[in-house]
Design a protein that fits this description.
By secondary structure, the chain is of the alpha+beta class. It is built from 3 helices and 6 strands, in the order H-H-E-E-E-E-E-H-E. Strands 1-6-2-3-4-5 form a 6-stranded antiparallel beta sheet. The longest helix has 11 residues.
């Protein structure tokens, strides 16, 4: 049974990524059927690792070693991907990977929901 939701919605970075996948009609990137249990670690466990050069729109970047420190959605791939990052009250924000990297751990994992 789905959990009851109320507004305003409060969520963290992995909750935001999961919500975006849900609203887009995509499969749960956590592999849990959108049951509310997903977090950055389940994104790392369920999604496929991809090379940065193969990143596509809708993929996810995770900063920090497992279980991850922060994650963001890829809005536009390229040499300096445009991300949608949420985790502060003023978010979600459009931010370049190079700018977000200044505030996050150096270890980065790129993830795709596509095999």
């Amino acid at each position: 049974m789905p959990l009851a939701r109320t507004l305003p919605l409060t969520t963290d970075c992995s909750g935001f990524v999961t919500l975006c996948y849900f609203l887009a009609g995509a499969p749960d990137p956590n592999g849990l059927g959108f049951d509310g249990r997903g977090w950055t670690g389940t994104l790392l466990e369920h999604m496929e690792n991809v090379d940065r050069r193969a990143v596509e729109r809708g993929d996810v970047v995770v900063f920090g070693e497992y279980p991850g420190h922060h994650c963001a959605l890829v809005l536009a791939p390229g040499d300096d991907p445009l991300l949608c990052s949420h985790g502060q009250e003023r978010g979600p924000l459009e931010i370049r990977f190079s700018d977000e990297s200044r505030y996050q751990p150096a270890d980065v994992t790129w993830l795709s929901s596509l095999p």
